[in-house]
Amino acid sequence: MTTITYHVGEHDGGFGYRLGDVWSETFPDHDTALAAAKSAAERQHIEGRDAEISYQRPDGRWHTEHADGGDRPDTVVIDDGKKQGS
Questions:
Q1: Pairing between strand 3-11 and 74-79?
Q2: Does 28 reside within a domain?
Q3: What's the pTM value of the predicted model, to 2 decimals?
Q4: Is residue 22 part of a domain?
Q5: Which of 11, 23, 43, 67 is found 20 to 30 A from 77 (Cα to Cα)?
Q6: For residue range 13-70, what is the model confidence (pLDDT) as tens digits?
Q7: Which domain range does residue 24 map to?
Q8: Which residues contact 59 (CB under 8 A, 6 or more apart)?
Q9: What total number of domains does the chain contain?
């Protein structure tokens, strides 16, 4: 199973959370950013619908595969930031 890790830390004059190199919006304080990261992590567990996905491969051929809407990743939130003033 895949694990998705959200990191909470200082960002753009406030706090935010990131997944890989992509940051969320900036929040005014650490607690709000941490709560938003936890909310995003929880939403990853919501099942979707099954779907057929088609995409073109680099060699130009098309590939179709089945995506199981119940195949959801594990999530982790890591707090890399400290509350301001602590």
A1: parallel
A2: yes
A3: 0.70
A4: yes
A5: 67
A6: 999 999 999 999 999 999 999 999 999 999 888 878 888 889 899 999 999 988 788 7
A7: 3-79
A8: none
A9: 1
